[in-house]
Design a protein that fits this description.
The chain has 393 residues and is of the alpha/beta class. The protein has two domains: 108 residues, Aspartate Aminotransferase, domain 1, CATH 3.90.1150; 247 residues, Type I PLP-dependent aspartate aminotransferase-like (Major domain) (Aspartate Aminotransferase, domain 2). The chain is 40% helix and 15% strand. It has a seven-stranded mixed sheet, with helices on both faces. Strands 10-11-12 form a three-stranded antiparallel sheet. The protein has a two-stranded antiparallel ribbon with strand order 8-9. α2 runs antiparallel to α10, α3 runs parallel beside α10 and α4 runs parallel beside α5. It is globular and about 65 Å long. The termini are far apart. The structure holds ligand 0PR. Ligand 0PR binds next to α4.
Amino acid sequence: MRETTAGGGVFPARGSDEEDVLKELEEKTGGDLTFDSGKILGSMCTHPHPLAVKVVQRYIDRNLGDPGLHVGSQGVEREAVDMLASLLGLEKGYGHIVSGGTEANILAVRAFRNLADVEKPELILPESAHFSFIKAGEMLGVKLAWARLRDDYSVDVKDVESKITDNTIGIVGIAGTTGLGVVDDIPALSDLAMDYGLPLHVDAAFGGFVIPFAKALGYDIPDFDFRLKGVKSITIDPHKMGMVPIPAGGIIFRERKYLEAISVLAPYLAGGKIWQATITGTRPGANALAVWAMIKHLGFEGYMEIVRNAMELSRWFAGELKKIPGVYLVREPVLNIVSFGAKELEKVEEELKKRGWGISAHRGYIRIVMMPHVRREHLEEFLGDLRGILKGL
Ligand code: 0PR
């Protein structure tokens, strides 16, 4: 056998035993926070549901980038898209399970731009919009026109209107903002979009798996989905509150034309001449199957129970925060996100991190997201630490 030469780099010349590789990985990831530790309070992800993990493991080799090979999986993705569309008030939707909210938002902007036929495309979006739109604007050559927020942190619809020009390709509204979980006045944005003949994209990356269930539980939240005629596309992420492993985002369009506007011909794949709309080519079928499996397994009622718990926990937590001197809520929670400020916030953040809490205060406040892995006892411990830190300042 010929001796392998390592070339002196970090690429190993010889392989190691599986056991050794796993042990080394275990050591290297020892510093990671895990969701079951109860210490991650500021993330929009969670430990995936065991069924979803099982499905991903079983179907790990499926590639939706070549659906001719995996025809069955492609059918399951379509059914997953249909179920998401149905959750969002649409009988038949067109879209994909994608890599996350970022890709979903980029696809929506791409569709609006390609259909608009203007030379200098502009997109109007709230100041609260996720930074994925900055990537979309840069990649697609679309100028972003940022609309002001009102005192309640929802977008000022009048300011949105004032920004409409002949170059406007569409409007964005947010159903569950990244920082505060605020739901914009989507009905008003939808009316505005209809008046001007513009498409409205709703970023419900987080809220999509919360709002329908919270509304069914009686929470007073504005309408946000396809039941509003101006809404032409929605981002909804199963890898956030859907309990599906990363990566699993969702983009749903009202009409086929949006999907067609972003489809590129892939002429040589196993399925013959196919059209591909997603940014990624090779992409995981397993995660799309996991989306399907979770929706089938939990059903509306199952998700409703998860959301009930998350919503109740956020109301309780907000109430407890209000009792602490030196702490203030940025606003009353709308969804299962509670954001608060405190005196000497940077110092408080530093001290909380020293005690192992997975939070950040980079927006000028601390955001706590009541994901399914967050339990009351974790929050009680957190509140205890917070009280102690503030007393010691
Ligand atoms: N739209 C909204 C409203 C979002 O909040 C996010 C992500 C996106 C789009 C983009 O989604 P992807 O990250 O799936 O592409 N919001 C989270 C955030 O910025 C992402 C995240 C998740 C951050 C888990 C940290 C974390 O631990 O907070």
